[in-house]
User: Fold these one by one.
Assistant:
Number 1:
Amino acid sequence: GEYFDQNPLSHIGLVWCCNGEAEMMTRLSGSVNAHRLALAAALQSTSGSNPNSGGEFSLQNGLEVAGRSLGHAPRHGSREILVVLGALSTCDPGNVLMETLPRLSKANIRVSSICLAAELYVCRKIADATGGLLGV
């Protein structure tokens, strides 16, 4: 709630990446309640032995889904993707640096990453190329 209090015009959307796929959990919205409910549902479904949780992480699929959702955002506002990941690698269908990065750069989307386990080289390259930040 504090983020939306300090940034009343902002919108956030959540993308969930697992099993090599990415899907929108919530569309771009200023509703903190919608995001909380989606996160609570995701946490509940991943606790225990849910076969749909985990699997390979795909940075490219996540960035593509997030980038498409930001395509409708006004060009005068800032567009940013924040990747929070605990994976040590990414299993992508193509070359994220040659295919996805140019599209993000052309759309003026800044990509920052928070790597919980270790720094991924590809995250560093994307953050540097888009003016984002990387934290480990």
Number 2:
Amino acid sequence: KLLQDQEGEIPITLDCWTSPNHWAWMSITTTRTRKGQDDTDELVTHLLDFIELPCLHSAVNMAEALAKFLKEYGIEKKVSSPSI
């Protein structure tokens, strides 16, 4: 709900890796600014999801997992260009 209500576009970052036991993973994070205690802007990063990919981090697997995540969160029209 918080993401759906956020004004403007939502920046997201994807990070993929393979665990020592050969499982493929992808994390989805977002970073935003907020006012700190001294009224200065500070960056805050939130982990939005941590997804096990089926087999490899191929472009197809990553795109399918990202599309599913965006639809589940109802933000598919709020993300402009994910960073990988």
Number 3:
Amino acid sequence: MYPLIRKALFAIDAEQAHRFSIQALKLLRHLPNCRKLPDNPVNVMGLTFKNPIGLAAGADKNGEAIDGFAQLGFGFIEVGTVTPVAQDGNPRPRQFRLPEAEGIINRNGFNNLGVDVLVENVKKAKYNGVLGINIGKNATTPIENSLDDYLICLRKVYSYASYITVNISSPNTKNLRSLQYGEALDDLLQALKAEQQALSQKNGAYKPLVLKIAPDLNNDEIASVADSLVRHKIDGVIAGNTTLSRESVAGLPNAEQQGGLSGKPLCQLSTQVIHQLSQELQGKLPIIGSGGIHSVASGQEKIDVGANLLQLYSAMVYQGPKLIEQLVRNIQLKD
């Protein structure tokens, strides 16, 4: 069935196809549960996940189709990235398929309707599983004032999220990745951790704070990030975001488009980062493995090198929802 749907979707612009898919998923929420998958519960960050396979941020930026995505069998869902106020993102076209490699390049630039709209959508959703909300900064906010945007979003989403992801690794917002390094990262994490503690006391509930990092960090940079995560008692880390590297797709149509590369070509790089991060962290905080999962074997490899949970998005563009079921039924978690 999905190959026919994919053929129709691939006949139109990638962003239009995504918009169509979101509308279809909004309708799906009205149907009886589509995929009755076995529970494979896992406890991570003090939360119980129905299974270890999650939807990565970027698929549902505004939280419009939470109930529809839940019907596909995900054990958790992450919405966003959301910013304090609505923004259009970068000029179109800004999404490009690389079908020969099952990859996607995007330079969206955090296009979203703003945190208030997302919160209203989350409040309307009937989904009662683990929900992550991914937060970012507006493009017009100077990098030195980034903390202000993250604090605004953290305060607004705190009551409605199971966990909150701090996205400092998109390559499509100018200078954003500079927040991953040294003093800038320490200052950001220290302030966000303090706010998390204050919100925890105010709301009577502790919501884990997760950092999403880039797959383009070298070993020394990964070690430095790991040290900061542990020192500031951050609850988890997502490895990782899209890559600027084109080594795995060199020569393919659209390969030189500016933006972040996701999908199958990212898989090996992502797994390497997870492995290095796991060695640095030594189990002190959990890793959510994200980037290029396209099969049970590719997902299992991420678990085997240290991931506690998995997230996917791009693979669904090429394979449809069947991959979710395959992963849920076959991924073997480490004891």
